[in-house]
Write a structure and sequence with these properties.
- By secondary structure, this protein is of the alpha+beta class.
- The chain folds into 4 domains: 154 residues, no CATH class; 55 residues, no CATH class; 148 residues, L,D-transpeptidase catalytic domain-like; 58 residues, no CATH class.
- It is built from 14 helices and 16 strands.
- Strands 3-4-5-13-11-10-6-14 form an 8-stranded mixed β-barrel. A 3-stranded antiparallel sheet has the order 7-9-8. It has a two-stranded antiparallel sheet with strand order 1-2.
- It is elongated.
- Belongs to the YkuD family.
- GO terms for molecular function: carboxypeptidase activity; transferase activity.
- Pfam families: Scaffold, YkuD.
- This is L,D-TPase catalytic domain-containing protein.
Length: 466
């Protein structure tokens, strides 16, 4: 990083104007396509008109000391510090207070401290907000601006705040789960250093996952896959909690963000082709009456309803399966009494189930990927009342129509005027239920790769979570 920032020898004076001139000269001398951090440092000083931000002719400003301290405290926020770079920052700042320096030496020290501290803080701010890794590749994140967040703008604003450290740390996510997990982690650091060392990378991995999430809405539904729960959250308060069944390890539920746009009561079930060919076709070969016995209807490619008992199922292959199977709206329907729909590329949804005893099991990774919900009609009533909160009489009419559909056994679509955000996340460590960390099973085996990427080569393999 030092070479990328173009740190060269000192000039012959140490006034703010000459520090600015030296900063301008060194930053403008960087070639195009220079390292990304250096490009963002250029942007920072260009916006500051190349004036020194962290130093004066008599030493470092208070914000410089605070910034260096924040860099050292990165592990408190679930981040892996750049130890060598932080040591260079500390030495550069300390050198400003050394007596007997000639003006040329002091100028060089000031320029060096300015550039190193700015680079370190831009990276820290980006990592506090976005984490250290990209979700799609587990490669290091960028500190460049995107459509949502600009570390340069944030640092420029923070330098003018009376409480510099607080403003830098305010770049972090503000979701309920992030705030609670971070608080539990910092309490553990203060009270049990042995446990903290053991759990460090697991906590870091889950803070990283929460940093990947978009800014939370004021009210939303959130499914945590390893916890087997769905919560309705408004700001920092959990309004409802439901048990769920999630995908089995062989058919995992994907992480996603979407909005529940409508739900359907007494739904028909269009059996996915994968289930029809992998699970139902073998049963049909053994028992052609399987469909009738379970209220399924068979359709051919022209929409006709053939008699499944007259089909030679042994000659039908999974690769060329020419049928569509639907299940009528009954109490035994695989979707139960209600299904909640939200757009997503995985074609999963949230639904009831007739197999309600499974919610008493401690481990509920059992589905084909969709999310089965305990007491789903309670969620349906909540959504209708929330959606029409300004018109309670209209909301009540919608609730009554919903129950008429359920008891009458006919399908009804109930759209939401204000689609409800839903997040499906994967947290194996959280503090959503209390002040201490709760560890959950890594049911899909996703922790190891993430923790390894976060550690890099800086930590031994026997540290937490291995």
């Amino acid at each position: 990083m030092l070479a990328c920032l173009g740190l060269s020898g000192p000039a012959a004076a140490q006034s703010d104007a000459e520090v600015a001139a030296q900063l301008r000269q060194q930053l403008r001398a960087l070639p195009g396509g220079q390292a990304e951090v250096a490009e963002q440092v250029q942007r920072f000083y260009r916006q500051a008109n190349y004036q020194p931000v962290w130093t004066t002719g008599t030493g470092p400003r208070p914000a410089a000391r605070a910034g260096a301290r924040l860099l050292r405290q990165a592990p408190d926020y679930g981040l892996r510090p750049d130890t060598l770079a932080n040591q260079a920052v500390a030495r550069a700042i300390d050198s400003l207070a050394l007596p007997g320096a000639a003006p040329a030496q002091l100028l060089g020290r000031r320029v060096r401290a300015e550039l190193l501290l700015t680079a370190g803080l831009l990276q820290l701010i980006s990592q506090l907000r976005r984490g250290q890794l990209r979700p799609e590749s587990l490669q290091p994140t960028s500190c460049a601006a995107d459509s949502v967040f600009d570390p340069v703008f944030w640092l420029l604003s923070a330098r003018q705040c009376p409480d510099f450290s607080r403003q830098v740390l305010a770049a972090q996510p503000r979701s309920r789960s992030y705030v609670r997990l971070l608080g539990a982690w910092q309490r553990l650091l203060r009270t049990d250093s042995v446990a903290a060392r053991r759990q460090r990378w697991l906590v870091a991995a889950n803070l990283q996952r929460l940093r990947w999430e978009p800014v939370a809405d004021s009210i939303y539904c959130v499914v945590n896959i390893p916890a087997y729960t769905l919560q309705v959250v408004r700001h920092a308060k959990v309004l409802r909690t439901f048990r769920v069944v999630v995908g089995a390890p062989t058919t995992p539920t994907p992480e996603l963000r979407s909005r529940i746009r409508f739900f359907e009561t007494s739904p028909r079930w269009n059996v996915p082709r994968s289930i029809a060919t992998r699970e139902m076709l073998p049963q049909l070969r053994r028992n052609p009456g399987f469909l009738d016995a379970n209220n399924y209807i068979l359709y051919d490619q022209r929409g006709r309803v053939p008699n499944p008992r007259r089909i030679d199922w042994k000659s039908v292959s999974a690769e060329a399966f020419p049928y569509v199977i639907r299940q009528a709206a009954t109490s035994d329907n695989a979707l139960g009494n209600v299904v909640f729909r939200f757009p997503n590329p995985h074609d999963i949804f949230l639904h009831d189930t007739p197999a309600r005893r499974v919610f008493n099991l401690p481990k509920r990774a059992l589905s084909h990927g969709c999310i089965r919900l305990q007491n789903p009609l309670q969620l349906a009533v909540f959504l209708l009342r929330h959606d029409q909160a300004a018109q309670p009489e209209r909301a009540q009419r919608n609730v009554e129509r919903m129950w008429d559909s359920v008891y009458g056994g006919y399908s009804k679509y109930l759209p939401l005027r204000y689609p409800m955000p839903i997040y499906v996340r994967y947290l194996t460590c959280h503090a959503d239920e209390g002040p201490t960390l709760r560890l959950l099973p890594d049911i899909y085996g996703r922790d190891r790769a993430l923790m390894a990427a976060l550690r890099g080569d800086a930590a031994p393999a026997d540290v937490a979570g291995e």
